[in-house]
Write a sequence for this structure.
């Protein structure tokens, strides 16, 4: 599935224009394609069609669609949502409409509301992929009128009110039954919450050559079947990797359990669970498969610097180290994490308090360049980058890619539509649900990714597959138990059964 950002679409259009495909011809092709798909999907000659147009280029697409449907005998009305068109090509297309009634929302609101109320089909062409922030009060009012109507709603390219690249919906937004993606899909067709406003999404080809733009953004199809390497009948536990899980504390024993269980259940050959000795009574009885490594700790039950004497040689014998889940952020744990990252060379997954410790000095990531996956949630990413959570959420893809590129690592930015990036490509996950928003879920994900890394999957592939499988477990749990009642423990039990579908 091809997915391009607004900047990439502008470049694609500019390249086409330079080669002789004029912008006005692109507008005409887009408008006609949308009109034809609308006709095929929803229209009979007796239905009333209202096209609501903005003053920019997206509005021009709407003028073309209106005229094309009028020429076929349909009953058409046009409403100007933001006044007269101002984009040159849109002005031209506005002038080409032949005898179509036009109502200006800004000056004839009562009449426009009546037209919207009586419409059978509404085509939304107010804003395109350049829209940002939120609609003003007047435009938001017309969006609300459309959403309250009984009409079928078709959005040209994007539902107006949704941001193309971030998927943000900051105010009133058109709720479409069908979104006609011009040339290719955009991030907002995939990202939440914008995707929930799109309805069905169908792509129309208008003859743009996309080969000049590098594809950087991808998702997996909903029927994706992950390919896991088949096990050799003559293999032994050493063939499937050794994981050292440095997680948990007396205060957070569950983190050690979830992290180690994720690594075990995804197929790692040998998992060592390293934790403060004060947490032994809480952790050890819950784990049968991992090796227990109880370590020196402070009075509060967090790792002390003395733990390094055993951890560093253990890490060097491991195929992947997972560090951070439930460790706490103390002087002792800070010292342990810093030294482990500097003095070891094995691939490393860093989560939770490991990320919080690094946030005091982000340049610590240089020590794990080329061999690390970090798995922050938005709050941890905000601390790492000295931003607000709101700023992170508004720029998830950009920030994940930028951090990954700067430090030569793989970033797994968790949340609805978890983003995975190696600095070049960006993968957006579509599995998972709100029932996974609870303590322990992230620890389980970190363990799954570590288990895959230990089995020699490349870091980006391990992060992508781990995120997909983790979300798929959550979806099965939500379906068979409930979103409200499901737990990470349920997901652990589901994981091996889910894997059987792919063997």
């Amino acid at each position: 599935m091809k997915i391009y950002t607004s900047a990439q679409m502008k470049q694609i259009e500019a390249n086409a224009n330079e080669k002789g495909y004029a912008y006005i011809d692109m507008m005409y092709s887009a408008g006609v394609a949308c009109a034809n798909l609308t006709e095929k999907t929803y229209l009979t000659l007796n239905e009333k069609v209202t096209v609501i147009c903005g003053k920019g280029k997206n509005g021009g697409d709407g003028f073309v669609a209106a005229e094309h449907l009028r020429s076929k005998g349909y009953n058409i009305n046009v409403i100007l949502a933001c006044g007269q068109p101002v984009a040159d090509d849109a002005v031209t297309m506005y002038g080409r409409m032949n005898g179509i009634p036009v109502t200006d929302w800004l000056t004839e609101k009562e009449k426009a509301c009546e037209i919207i109320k009586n419409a059978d089909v509404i085509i939304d062409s107010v804003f395109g992929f350049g829209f940002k922030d939120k609609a003003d009060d007047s435009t938001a009012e017309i969006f609300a009128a459309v959403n309250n109507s009984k009409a079928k709603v078709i959005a040209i390219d994007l539902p107006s009110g949704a941001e193309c690249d971030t998927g943000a919906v900051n105010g009133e937004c058109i709720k479409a039954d069908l979104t006609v993606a011009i040339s290719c899909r955009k991030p907002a067709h995939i990202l939440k919450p914008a995707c929930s406003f799109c309805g069905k999404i169908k792509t129309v080809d208008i003859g743009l050559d996309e080969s000049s733009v590098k594809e950087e953004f991808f998702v997996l199809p909903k029927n994706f079947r992950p390919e896991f390497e088949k096990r050799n009948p003559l293999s032994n536990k050493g063939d499937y990797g050794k994981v050292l899980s440095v997680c948990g504390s007396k205060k957070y024993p569950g983190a050690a359990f979830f992290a180690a269980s994720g690594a075990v259940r995804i197929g790692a050959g040998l998992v060592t669970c390293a934790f403060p000795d004060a947490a032994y009574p809480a952790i050890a009885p819950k784990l049968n498969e991992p090796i227990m490594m109880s370590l020196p700790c402070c009075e509060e039950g967090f790792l002390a610097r003395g733990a390094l004497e055993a951890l560093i040689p253990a890490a060097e014998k491991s195929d992947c180290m997972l560090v951070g889940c439930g460790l706490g952020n103390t002087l002792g744990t800070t010292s342990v994490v810093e030294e482990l990252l500097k003095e070891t060379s094995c691939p490393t997954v860093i989560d939770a308090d490991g990320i919080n410790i690094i946030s005091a000095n982000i340049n610590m990531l240089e020590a794990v360049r080329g061999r690390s996956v970090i798995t922050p949630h938005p709050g941890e990413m905000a601390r790492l980058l000295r931003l607000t959570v709101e700023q992170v959420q508004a720029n998830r893809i950009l920030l994940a890619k930028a951090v990954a590129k700067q430090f030569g690592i793989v970033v797994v930015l968790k949340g609805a539509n978890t983003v995975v990036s190696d600095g070049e490509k960006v993968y957006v996950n579509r599995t998972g649900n709100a029932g996974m928003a609870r303590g322990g879920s992230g620890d389980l994900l970190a363990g799954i990714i570590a288990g895959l890394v230990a089995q020699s999957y490349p870091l980006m592939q391990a992060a992508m597959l781990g995120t997909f499988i983790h979300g798929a477990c959550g979806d099965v749990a939500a379906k068979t138990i409930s979103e409200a009642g499901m737990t990470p423990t349920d997901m652990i039990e589901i994981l091996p059964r889910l894997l059987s579908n792919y063997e």
